[in-house]
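To illustrate the input format used throughout this study, we show a single complete record. The first block contains the structure-token representation of the backbone; no residue identities are included at this stage. The design step must infer an amino acid for every position from geometry alone.
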């Protein structure tokens, strides 16, 4: 019974709260935590994985299959793969495949089809190939695509053609994917609700954003637009936008100068209920001098927007530790500053959180401390959303990082520093009392939920102690 109950809780709740209740709760929670970790399986470790799962009955729900030569597998690899299909696929709810169907024909590899057919619990399928499929004449065993609607339980589909996966030759090949191939894939999953499009050609992005028979029920989309299609800037054409799309997430990439983020926002402004901007990297002044931050301009009004989220990275690229760090994009509001009643009349939730990067992709980057990340997030909120003289009575929930331990004050840069940041003038930054920040937060959002009510009842000098206690209570 406890195992079933805990299956509904989020991973942070399991990790920071449930494991502290008792030994029994901890044991049950850790079984869920282990199963939710994404495990990467390759020809070199799949045998060990099968042995461990058979002995301990520890089956992972999130699996990535990488570097399998499906076109011409060795006998040993084929045997491992068949054992995996027979013995380890039943619990899988999320599957990442280093594979993409050959373009231009209605074919899919028999091994891939066998995996999909033997994953009865699968809800999320993601194609993230390191190479594009070869032509039909070079392939081994292939079968035709199953009939449309063969996998009704898959609710989320991801297609990732980003340059960190593909080499230069395959990047070029990925830009010529035929729309017919994408349609054939989408038709396999009649109950799709969510799509992840990472670095797809513009014509395919247009397809997912438009009103089509095969995408008519998709209500949520995640987009990272191609950097190499930003020069020259390729503009989206959305003559027939989807009626169902209400949730959009942008994955921001360094160096992307595309104007299409603004076009997408303007197109779906009247329908959009949830907006998330993720993958926001941190740079330093010298880097921004050569790569100016991308501007994202909000429409004049987002009448139905209820949730606005920002996912900021905790990694930085090539910065000295003491250098000031800034997000790689700027927010712009119609008419200058944000006016909540005009621009976000229905906003209920505002979130600034960590963006979960892939460790392998950021292996050459540095991870900033919790305290510095808190300062960066506070500066971000203070700059764009805590404006003097304006308040937003509709917001009931604000999620922001809290500092580690007791913290009296922090530095906020009021102006962008010179490229010679060692000589930043005293007028360009100021020391801010933590209590003033939280007071501004409560003034801007007077109807926050009871979690923030404590800040109105204590002396400002004790605010950070309440934060520490509240954080422990919240887990």
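Output of the design step:
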């Amino acid at each position: 019974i406890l195992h079933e109950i805990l299956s509904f809780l989020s991973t942070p709740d399991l990790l920071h709260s449930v494991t502290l209740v008792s030994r029994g709760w901890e044991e049950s929670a850790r079984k869920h935590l282990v199963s939710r970790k994404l495990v990467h399986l390759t020809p070199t470790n799949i045998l060990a994985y099968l042995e461990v799962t058979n002995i301990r009955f520890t089956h992972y729900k999130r699996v990535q299959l990488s570097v399998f030569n499906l076109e011409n597998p060795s006998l040993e690899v084929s045997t491992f793969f068949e054992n995996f299909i027979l013995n380890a696929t039943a619990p899988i709810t999320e599957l990442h495949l280093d594979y993409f169907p050959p373009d231009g024909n209605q074919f899919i590899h028999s091994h891939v089809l066998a995996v999909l057919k033997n994953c009865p619990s699968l809800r999320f399928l993601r194609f993230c190939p390191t190479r594009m499929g070869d032509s039909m004449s070079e392939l081994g065993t292939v079968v035709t695509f199953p009939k449309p609607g063969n996998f009704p339980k898959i609710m989320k589909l991801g297609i990732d053609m980003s340059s960190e996966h593909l080499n230069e030759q395959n990047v070029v090949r990925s830009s010529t994917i035929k729309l017919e191939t994408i349609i054939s894939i989408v038709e396999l999953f009649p109950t799709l609700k969510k799509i992840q499009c990472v670095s797809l050609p513009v014509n395919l992005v247009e397809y997912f954003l438009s009103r089509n028979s095969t995408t008519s029920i998709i209500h949520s989309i995640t987009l990272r637009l191609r950097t190499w299609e930003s020069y020259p800037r390729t503009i989206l054409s959305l003559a027939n936008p989807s009626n169902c799309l209400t949730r959009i997430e942008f994955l921001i990439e360094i160096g992307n100068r595309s104007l299409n983020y603004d076009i997408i926002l303007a197109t779906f402004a009247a329908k959009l209920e949830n907006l998330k901007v993720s993958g926001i990297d941190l740079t330093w002044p010298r880097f921004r001098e050569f790569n100016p931050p991308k501007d994202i301009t909000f429409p004049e009004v987002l009448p139905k927007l209820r949730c606005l989220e920002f996912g900021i990275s905790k990694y930085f690229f090539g910065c000295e530790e003491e250098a000031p760090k800034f997000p790689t994009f700027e927010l712009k509001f119609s008419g200058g500053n944000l006016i909540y009643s005009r621009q976000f009349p229905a906003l209920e939730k505002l979130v600034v959180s960590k963006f979960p990067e892939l460790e392998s992709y950021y292996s050459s980057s540095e991870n900033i401390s919790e305290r510095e990340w808190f300062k960066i997030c506070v500066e971000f909120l203070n700059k764009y959303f805590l404006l003097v003289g304006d308040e937003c009575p509709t917001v009931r929930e604000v999620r922001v990082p809290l500092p580690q331990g007791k913290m009296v004050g922090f530095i906020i840069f009021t102006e962008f520093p010179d490229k010679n940041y060692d000589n930043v003038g005293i007028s360009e930054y100021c020391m801010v009392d933590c209590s003033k920040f939280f007071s501004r937060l409560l003034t801007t959002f007077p109807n926050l939920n009871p979690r923030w009510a404590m800040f109105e009842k204590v002396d400002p000098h004790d605010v950070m102690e309440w934060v520490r206690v509240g954080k422990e209570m919240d887990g």
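Structural context for interpreting the output: The radius of gyration is 24 Å. The CA atoms of residues 17 and 474 lie 8 Å apart.
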